[in-house]
Design a protein that fits this description.
6-stranded mixed beta sheet, Outer membrane lipoprotein wza fold like, elongated, SLBB domain-containing protein, 20% helix, 203 residues, 25% strand, 5-stranded mixed beta sheet
Length: 203
């Protein structure tokens, strides 16, 4: 099998006995500091699957300690190679590279061309964040207060989806209904966004 990406010693690993994921990670020396764990993927039998390395190592989800197989390929991307996604009422909704220094919400919106029109509801900018392949978070920020200097800009994480609505929305269900078609287009292809139903609203 192969470990590719942000591992200490990436490359082939020869399995001479039953080996689980934790043991496999030990064989390649663990992960680099800039590995983006929620974006890790397992290629098995020509199918791409999620593998929750974050949950296993950070949250003790030992059900994610899968048995490895001889033809498996596990890939862990770098945070620097990831993107955030700016959608909704912006001039050029698209993927924005996260970069070495990271991004804030307003920086990402600016890179995407800024707000599309004056009627944009900057008070209710929505952010969908993936914490692992099985869990996520819904975050509401007040862009108007950020632009007025009344609060600090909001730091993003790789894979975040930033949605700028045109009108006030009653609840997250309305926001997700608007975002879902685009999420389905990018889910599992270029970003580790999880299924919407697995997300939990931030308190």
């Amino acid at each position: 099998m192969y470990f590719l990406g942000e591992f200490r010693t990436p490359g082939p690993v020869y399995l001479s006995r039953d080996t689980d994921l934790v043991e496999g990670l030990a064989l390649v020396g663990g992960l680099e500091a800039d590995a983006y764990l929620p974006g890790a993927r397992l290629l098995r039998n020509n199918q791409i699957c999620t593998v929750d390395i974050y949950g296993l190592l950070k949250a003790g989800k030992f059900d994610q300690n899968i048995q490895l197989r001889g033809q498996d390929v596990i890939y862990a991307p770098s945070r620097d190679d990831m993107s955030v996604y700016v959608l909704g009422n912006v001039a050029g909704g698209r993927a924005v590279p996260f970069g070495v220094n990271g991004l804030t919400a307003m920086e990402a919106i600016t890179v995407a061309g800024g707000f599309a029109r004056d009627r944009v509801n900057t008070k209710e900018i929505r952010i969908i964040r993936t914490e692992s392949p099985t869990e996520g978070e819904l975050i509401l920020i007040n862009g108007r207060e950020i632009l007025a200097g009344e609060m600090l800009d909001f730091p993003l994480e790789p894979g975040d989806v930033v949605y700028v609505p045109e009108h006030p929305m009653d609840n997250w269900n309305a926001a997700l209904t608007a975002i879902l078609p685009t999420l389905q287009m990018i889910d599992g292809i270029v970003t580790p966004i999880t299924l919407v139903r697995s997300l939990t609203q931030a308190q």
